[in-house]
Design brief:
- This protein has 210 residues and is mainly α.
- It has one domain.
- 72% of the residues lie in helices and 3% in strands.
- It has nine helices and two strands.
- Strand 1 and strand 2 form a beta hairpin.
């Protein structure tokens, strides 16, 4: 998890170490992604429980999030963020396959898993009641673009003639997948979407209540 800070401050050196380590899926998810997502989810849950969230639709700070509601939301968001990494890796792998025959899915997944971490780190700002959900996403995307610019050549190793095209394709996928996830979660936090009456929330409440 600590690598996210080195990726932002020393991206070239850190990416070289990541490329050389060649970690597997389980290590990346369990040691890198899971702790970071869990920490930011706990911080956001604490903020929602303690301070609520400013909802411009009603021009008020909404503090009526119940414990079960917060737990269900954080579980859904956690799974969404994991899905964003896997789906982005799959889409980038499919898009770049015609240009990089020797590229493996693990290389792409590694790039996406570490490349998304600035966005996941900045997600802790959602713990503040006054911060609009769009702000952490925009800041996180700016950092993710910078980090991925350094990481794609070192881990995915595209042909120099296709390198910029691969980067642009990756950015399109990253913006699309993370943007959809942010839209879904942000609309809930701002009061435009009600998860309490959804099928998935009822299932989660039932499971977590047992």
């Amino acid at each position: 998890m600590i690598k996210v800070f080195f990726l932002i401050l020393e991206p070239d050196v850190t990416w070289d170490k990541i490329a050389q380590a060649k970690r597997g899926f389980l290590h990346i998810v369990a040691i890198h992604l899971f702790p970071l997502l869990l920490l930011t989810s706990l911080l956001e849950a604490w903020g929602l429980n303690r301070h609520g969230k400013w909802q411009p639709k009603f021009q008020m700070y909404y503090t009526g999030f119940s414990g079960h509601e917060i737990l269900c939301f954080e579980v859904i968001e956690f799974l969404l963020f994991l899905a964003v990494v896997f789906i982005s890796a799959l889409l980038v792998f499919k898009i770049t396959q015609p240009f990089q025959y020797r590229l493996t899915f693990l290389q792409v997944f590694t790039t996406m898993a570490y490349g998304f971490t600035p966005m996941f780190l900045i997600h802790f700002l959602d713990a503040s009641a006054a911060v609009n959900p769009l702000v952490p996403w925009l800041l996180g995307m700016g950092l993710a673009m910078w980090v991925l610019y350094q990481g794609i050549p070192r881990v995915m190793q595209p042909d120099p003639t296709h390198a910029f095209g691969v980067y642009l394709s990756t950015m399109f996928v990253v913006l699309l997948t993370s943007g959809l996830a942010r839209l879904i979660t942000g609309m809930y936090l701002l009061g435009y979407m009600d998860y309490r009456h959804s099928w998935l929330s009822h299932k989660l409440i039932h499971l977590l209540g047992q």
